[in-house]
Amino acid sequence: MTSPLPERAARRCHNVINPLHSTHYFSPDLSRELTAVGVSDSRAAYFAVRAAAMGPVGAGVVTAAFFNFHPGLVARHVPAVWETASPQVVLAARARAVDATLRRLLGEETVAAKETAEAAQLALRATEACTRHARPLYAAHADLPVPDEPHLALWHAATLLREHRGDGHLAVLLAADLDPVEALVTHTATGKGMSPKWALGTRGWSREDWDAACGRLRERGLLGADDELTEAGTALRGEIEAETDRLDRAPYEHLGAAGVERLTDLAGALLTRALTAGAFPEGMIGKG
C-alpha cells in the first residue's frame, strides 16, 4: 500500500511535468519539421500537432477540446490542415521535433542518463491510473504507442498526464461558469497564466473580447477596477485549482508519495536544464 500524498504534491509534480511536454510548441525544431510537410503557419501547426491524435477532426471538435481559442481562428486552419498533412504525417513530424528539441535543450548526456529513464518509468507508472471517460485529448493520446527511447517515453507520459489534468480542468471551468476568455483573464490575473499580450496573440480573441470579459467578471465581483482579482475572484481560482487537483489525483496516488517526490525531483532537474537553455520565450507568463 502506498503512503498518502502530502498536500499539493500532485500539483507540484504536474507543474514540472507539464512544461516538459510544452517545450516543443515553442521550438524551432517543430517549425522546421511541420514546414517540411507543408504546414508553415505556426497556428495551424499547433492545432495540427495537438489534435492529430484524434484523427482528421473538424473545427468544432478542436474548439471544444482546446476550449480557450476563438472558434474563428480554429476554423481558419481546421480541417484544411489535414489536406496538407494527414494526422499520421503530423504525428511523425512531431515525434522528430520532440526528439530534436529534447536533445538540444537537455544535451545528449542527459538524454542518455539513467535518471531520464527512471523519470520515464515513474511517469508511465502514474499514467496507469488515468481514466478515459470525458477526457477526449487524454484518451486520444493514450491510444498512441509508447516510444522506445526513454526521453521520448518520458515526453509521451508527460503528454498523457498533461492532457488528463487539462481535460478535467475544463470541466471545472465550466462548473465555475467561466467562458474561455473569462478563464484566460482570471488565470492571467493570478500572475501564473499567459500575459494578456500572449493570450490575445495566440488565442485569437480581440482586445474588445478581453475588455468585455473583464466587464462581466467585474459584474460578478471577481475582478476589481484595477483588473486584479478580488477576494472572491482569488477564492474562485483557488477552488478551481483544488477541484482540478481532486479530479487529477488518481495517477499520483497510484504512483505513491515516494514515487511522486522522486518524479518531481527528476523532472524538476530536467526542466531547469530546459529553462536554462531557453525553452520558452521571455514575457510569456505574467500580467504584462
Topology (SSEs and partners):
Elements: H1 9-22, H2 28-36, H3 42-51, H4 59-66, H5 71-77, H6 80-84, H7 87-106, H8 108-111, H9 114-127, H10 136-142, H11 150-175, H12 180-189, H13 196-203, H14 207-219, H15 231-247, H16 249-276
Helix pairs in contact: 1-11, 1-16, 2-7, 4-5, 9-11, 9-16, 10-11, 11-15, 12-14
Describe this structure in a few short sentences.
The protein is mainly α and 288 residues long.
Helix content, binned percent = 55-70%
Please state the overall shape, judged from the principal axes of the Cα atoms: globular
Strand content: under 5%
**CA-to-CA gap between the ends?**
46 Å
Low-confidence stretches: none
Account of the 3D structure:
The chain contains 16 helices and no strands. Helix 4 (59-66) packs across helix 5 (71-77) and helix 9 packs parallel to helix 11. Helix content is 69%, strand content 0%. It is globular. The chain has one domain. By secondary structure, the chain is mainly α. The termini are far apart.
